[in-house]
DNA sequence: CGTTTTTGACCGGCGC
DNA sequence: GCGCCGGTCAAAAACG
């Protein structure tokens, strides 16, 4: 394959590193007011996770609800304030003064916070806009000089062979990411040395292969982007991407192949992404003792989408799944976002800076096993499907931050063991609980992670 | 009995 | 041209 790519096909890898610090910052500040109260609950939950880790669904649902409440809290502030005020009035005169003083202070404080919050929010919006503009420009530039690759890197998403060179590249590149990702989300992150930090991401990579003769035409339409949004927006984004992908499909039927490779911790032979697949072949790859399995989408008769699944040879618990092509049909309800990722290909290319080829995309097992993406989910549709802007749920380091399910890494001894129950230690769970909340925002797309990948 | 998996044959690209 | 290799086909087997 590698040879193929080198020669016959041109691969453009565009990497946009989006860290959106602003957003994160804002988020943190904005949410802190509420999180402080909830942190305890979260931790408790984390503990629960420790013991019975298999009730992912359950937890997710709960946490999801929680999360929404959390979001609502901002609006609820006013009410809260008033209520407090009323309460104060009912207090005895003695205390009254003190209380009212405190109240005033608190109120002013709150107002201040609100203002700040708004400012930050605006900042975020601005940033997003800017980013989008940049993205567009980038696309334009890409158009213009697609012959001179900016950061052309050839990588393969699968196969033992491609782990060599790309790996280096990834490491260097990811070095940057880590530094960003770490501060961003993992404030409590402790495990980290570089290697581990690498895993921070749930990054998804997409490659576009252009048929030689189609280079020019297809190139024009291609824009690769990484975007990160607030996690709840991610859904919308994903959906948008899906929809976009589908529509564009009809217009522009797969004249280019997209590839998405996903790494997930998964014990089963394949991860259940909600799509229907028929196995049509199996081969042992050269460098890897583990056989590679080839599947074809059977959801619709003529669907060209294929996927290949192979265990990572470095860590057998990791399953590398590479999706290729674009579905010619809507995905079934309950299909994984991953499975649909390819549909985003035509419009948005996601590239993991880290270049997927080797390690960038890792999704916790539970995650990979039960992600529903709900194509056409009402929730998703609500969120604002038309933003042209968007992002891919599966993108970059920043996203990875968002999904940050990666935080935890432990010893290296856990190869081959990915216990049904949470194998990891407590502090990790702390983190995971937090991240799970984040993840939950993506609810239908991602599920609460119970295991994590480390490398 | 229809569908999926298994598995060796087959094919095309590529390097030598 | 030959052999290697990744990928696919398809007949047979397994499955439900
Ligand atoms: Zn399909």
TrEMBL record:
PANTHER family: WRKY TRANSCRIPTION FACTOR 36-RELATED (PTHR31429), WRKY TRANSCRIPTION FACTOR 9-RELATED (PTHR31429:SF54)
Disordered as annotated region, ranges: 1-94, 157-183
Location (main, coarse): nucleus
SMART domains: WRKY
Annotated protein name in UniProt: Putative WRKY transcription factor 9
Compartments where located: Nucleus
Sequence ranges of Basic and acidic residues compositional bias: 20-33, 58-94, 161-180
Gene Ontology molecular function terms on file: DNA-binding transcription factor activity; sequence-specific DNA binding
Origin superkingdom: Eukaryota
